[in-house]
């Protein structure tokens, strides 16, 4: 009986609520759809088209772009693109590993400090990342150029040849990546350390004589969600990095981002660039998906990211 | 956010708002007719509520959590729309009137003071929204501050107030608008016991001085009895009983109301024989007024009506039992007895008589006039 | 005893990392006061490069572009993002999965993919219709796109932190929908709005990759100008302009941070 006698006012209210939702959400949703979702879909489509004479995509559909990305060109297979892909993976792996090595003790140290200092310490870690990436990278160019104290030191140690300078080089790119992404790892790790269950650690210290084993069994598993969140936050953008290899690698240490960008500026081969972009997107979504899965299993991984 | 109120009600509401500055208006009565409220598909919050609240009454909605009392209050405020039924305030149908056009104000459980405003601006908020002049606002705020004795609280920031102070400000903020009806949603539940009983008395006095209709929501039956002119006991979205505190306490309409009012001595009636009823305590004689032929329901024995002693007044029912537990409460002494294997509570005023010890055999006198039959 | 040694070691490591983090910025600021054009040799303190900035028409125009871009895009993003944030809050009990995905998309998409998809899309629309000529207009569109999620999330989290009965109290106290927005919503949200504006502003000023791909020939911003100068190897004033940007961004970010902090009681 109640079911059928839904009053007019109540029905009006339901309609009003829906209209309100549409009114508030539509402008933004439409904006992102038109100016980001459609462009991304278009880019994905481009990857399956043929490269035209001016670098613009044309029909027919083909998988040429992916073949080229794998290194197959007019002159048969060449290793250039494969090197770039491998270098991207390697640089991502090395810089992420280094970031973990630096960030882990750092995040731990911050949690051991007095509570009132901690926000300030986190701020100190984050502040440099607020400045422009090009400027930060330019700072490293100044520091690593030939004739600077750091380069002279490396030269006297015999690490580099005379008047070479530490940049441009793969090393400079790795350094730039570590510098750039360090805060992204410190924050989630800090969050994990702060939630650390001290009782468990003390119990472990009783159970296991050696501090190493206590750490491994009680501390490390508890920081794993933070570590994984940080890894995704570092590895995904590092894999697609453009500015740092371009400036600190000096054309010799190209990564996937540079390969993609070049197809849209100088080299002009949109389908090839789009194919590279799809690779990056895949990496992004696989990373996010993995983190969601693992985060759910370990608990608390997701909130750290957001 | 559609405002599709019929033009007539809107005009009426505006007129009502416009003469808000007049001296204390006549209190308004409230009529609820066949109110239904569901949440989602199958959560029924109110299942056909009919109720009349008289003008100038201190009326309490009492019940356990989830009984629908807060939903009912929110419908009165206009914060919730009923699925079915009508609501009349002061004889006018306001079912479809949005909350900001109803001359009704609420004191919220969480007080809901605006953190971005000073206490003074909080007090003036409703008047300002109704478009009253600055001078008028100032006069009324000063008046209410005087009336509720806010003193220097008016100059404070909201985050500098204690819980009790917030409660008074929330009350003043609602009263300053001189509404037809004031709604209070468990306004004392967050306060400690001492302050609470003090404010219970204050609120009741205030309502009598103003002559305003108050609708008060609580789950505390003592609070309801102390403060109210009348009480409606709700359960499962249905009104179980409406009556004065003594009616509800002494003659609960059913076992739920009896239990909710704190009665322990309820015994199932197994048989009726003339003026006597059979329970597991034994056979007891009833007052003729309570006699009915049906052998169902419960027998309620209020513990404070029982008499312990060897010599009983004439006509009393006689029971025998053993003291199982004794609680000394100063002004009174509570005994838990076992009578024929049934627990029976007895409360005796402490008049200096000899106390019974645990294990004592005692004789209990039950006056037939104090026995009440309660429906299932 | 061993614990103390460990802590000393960690403290040392902390200060070393801080030096690592601030060294590149310090070098840029330091050499902006160098009297000679060298990244290796500091000769004398001078304001020479700052003076030169004022005479460099390209830099001034890039500065103007950056400022217009940041302000216009932040204002648009503020309005749109606020509406979304409010909608997300009002309807938080509904299933809004699609909306959440949409809102997180600009955040998770790699910059370079973001930039080139918009560029490719804008170029094709331009070829077909003549609209969306690359320039400040397309850059504003792109910036608003990545600013919206941040504004929406800041506004949303501010709403979530509010006592929901405040909304009802405003209704109860005779505030019409319009007056509720004016006297309750906007004043309550003010800190969040200021914070969101400055964050958007910072994000816009900071962005290089997305700007780079959506810019037109006349609409170079400061980061684009700096990039070009570095690439060409002509860098005398870069330290000076970079130092000014570091200062400005730190200031804006700090303002954003101050206003986003929950009020203390």
TrEMBL record, chain A:
The cross-references to InterPro entries, in alphabetical order and at most eight, read:
MetI-like, MetI-like_sf
Q: Which locations, inside or outside the cell, does it occupy?
A: Cell membrane
The entry's keywords: Cell membrane, Membrane, Transmembrane, Transmembrane helix, Transport
Q: Where is the ABC transmembrane type-1 domain?
A: 85-291
According to Swiss-Prot or TrEMBL, what is its membrane topology? Multi-pass membrane protein
Q: Which CDD domains match?
A: TM_PBP2
List residues traversing the bilayer.
21-49, 89-108, 120-141, 171-193, 214-244, 270-290
Q: Would you indicate the residue range of the signal peptide?
A: none
PROSITE patterns membership: ABC_TM1 (PS50928)
Pfam families per the record?
A: BPD_transp_1
**Entry's family note:** Belongs to the binding-protein-dependent transport system permease family. CysTW subfamily.
What's the name of the protein? ABC transporter permease
What high-level taxonomic lineage is stated for the organism? Answer: Bacteria, Pseudomonadati, Pseudomonadota, Gammaproteobacteria, Oceanospirillales
From TrEMBL, chain B:
One Pfam family from the UniProt entry?
A: ABC_tran
Region Disordered: which residues? 1-26
Q: Is this entry keyworded Metal-binding?
A: no
The enzyme's E.C. designation? 7.6.2.11
Q: Which InterPro entries match?
A: AAA+_ATPase, ABC_SmlMolc_Importer, ABC_transporter-like_ATP-bd, ABC_transporter-like_CS, Mo/tungstate-bd_C_term_dom, P-loop_NTPase, PotA-like, Transp-assoc_OB_typ2
Question: Which family would the database say this protein is a member of?
Answer: Belongs to the ABC transporter superfamily. Spermidine/putrescine importer (TC 3.A.1.11.1) family.
Instruction: Write down what this protein is called.
Output: Spermidine/putrescine import ATP-binding protein PotA
Which species is the source of this protein? Modicisalibacter tunisiensis
Gene name of the record:
potA
From TrEMBL, chain C:
| Stretches assigned to the ABC transmembrane type-1 domain | 63-259
Protein name per UniProt: ABC transporter permease
**Is Transmembrane helix one of the keywords UniProt gives this record?**
yes
As for family, the record states:
Belongs to the binding-protein-dependent transport system permease family. CysTW subfamily.
Q: Identify the SUPFAM superfamilies for this entry.
A: MetI-like
Q: Which Pfam families match?
A: BPD_transp_1 (PF00528)
Membrane spanning segments where?
A: 12-33, 67-89, 96-116, 136-160, 181-203, 240-259
Record localization? Cell membrane
Q: Which UniProt keywords apply?
A: Cell membrane, Membrane, Transmembrane, Transmembrane helix, Transport
Instruction: Name the membrane topology term.
Output: Multi-pass membrane protein
